[in-house]
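Give me C-alpha cells for this 193-residue protein.
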Amino acid sequence: MFKLFFTHINQKVSLTAAEQNEVKTYFTPKKLRRKQYLLQEGEVCRYLAFVEKGVLRSYNVDAKGGEHMIHFALEGWWMADTYSFLSGEPSNYNIDAIEDAELLMITLEGFEQMMVQVPRMERYFRILFQNNIISKERRLISSISYSAEEKYIRLAESNPQLMQRIPLHLIASYLGITPETLSRIRKHLSQKK
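Here you go.
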C-alpha cells in the first residue's frame, strides 16, 4: 500500500528504512467508492490524504447548485482543504471520488508529530507547499489572461492524464467554461490537425 507513497516522497527527499517505518505509523489506509465523499462543505477537514489509487476532486457548489472544480488528485497526488485542515475552520469545499480510490490519511496531530520525529518530511512538505503555491499562481494567471482555448491547451499539455480520466464536463468546470464551449474548442482543435 505504501509503494507509490514512498516512491513519490523519495523523488523529493531520501528517507532511510527506519524513517519510512516511522512515517507509516502516522497514516491510516482508507478506501472510497466512486462518488463517496471524503469531505463535505461545512465539515472541518480532519485529514490530509495521499492518493495511492483512483481520482479525487475538490469543488464548491454555488447558490444555484452549480459545481466549480477547484482541484483534482490522481495517483501520487495529495488532497485536502489545506486551510480547513490547518486552521480547524469549516471547509467551503466538497471532496469526493471520481473513481474508486485508495488513500493514505494523516490527521493534523499526526502530521505535526511526524514533522518532529522525521525532519526530512518537513522538507518534503515544504517542497510540496512551494509547488502548490506556484501551481495556484499559474492557474490564477491562466484564468485571467488566457482564452478558453489557450487554457484547455495548457491543461492538456501539462496534465494529459487528466484529459483521459476526468469527465469533460468536470474539465470544463475546472477551466471556468461551459461544456458546450469545451466541445467547440475540442472540435476546432481536431479540425486543425
